[in-house]
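B., you asked whether I could sanity-check this one before it goes into the benchmark set. Here's the sequence:
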Amino acid sequence: MKKIITIIAGGDSSEHDVSMRSATGIDSWIDKEKYDVYIVEVKGKNWTAHLHNGTTSPVFLHNCTFLDEYNKRITPDYAYITIHGTPGENGILQGYFDLLKIPYSTSSLLVEAMTFDKFTLNQYLKGFGVRVANDVLVRKGYDFDPKEITEKVGLPCFIKPNAGGSSFGVTKCKDVSEITDAIEKARKESDDVLVENEMKGTEISNGVYKKPNGEIVVLPITEVVPKTEFFDYDAKYNGKVEEITPARLSDDTTKRVQQLTKSIYQILDASGIIRIDYIISKNADNQDVINMLEINTTPGMTATSFIPQQVRAAGLQMCDVLNEVIECKLSSDGQVSE
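And here's what the prediction gave me:
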């Protein structure tokens, strides 16, 4: 019997449709000789399984099962989570699948919750010597002084949702007069808002995953050259960016970035495929300095996304990589591997 894989996609953030495109990409790469695959679309409490004959079936949330086109009950052996944002990238779904004892592709509830909260992640990784931006957290319900914020982080600065991706609600502010409106814009995506100083330099992104034998595989680095002022939704999804894989970095800087990526993966005790974004700036001696921007624990997985690009550049196949990710937690009897 083939193991049943449900690709959990959609979600409740502004990146719902992007997530569905990622699900289509993952579905095209998963080995159908080994697995029987269904896409499950999440919208609040309404979960819908997309069946093989093109119809849909409601998912019973008490056990995550559904009926197929032959009225047969389908019980998933594994959940491949590709929701960008809530509830798939912040620990909520991880807790749900933990209760149901269904193995899943991402890191644990704790790791997902922490990496989704940008401010918390920054404070945690700073303790391990990781360089991050100077930042200020603006919590909902508390007064804030735009002038005081800019005195702490400087101008220009970036204002973004603290809990969410970086595709929506992000503003680059060049004047203190822009701060209030930018915070209100970010609050449409997240109650708490993060304000960070601008780090000038080369933006890069580096994917990493773990094999069933425990080996951590760090992929080639992608250099991001947006045609817009910064790497926003328009640049990401409307082609207004040049993506260069492998990145145009020195051998030494490439090795240091990849080692840092591996170290962060180990520090977090992460699982599955994650992508870490950085800015490479210069110090007073014109040496490359590595600054972490954020961590994506359910990165985009369309054919043109960074991870598939990096997998191809490494001479690997997406089918093989996904098999390894799935088998990390799915043993021959369908239980979570220890």
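One thing to flag: The mean pLDDT is 93. Otherwise nothing jumped out at me.
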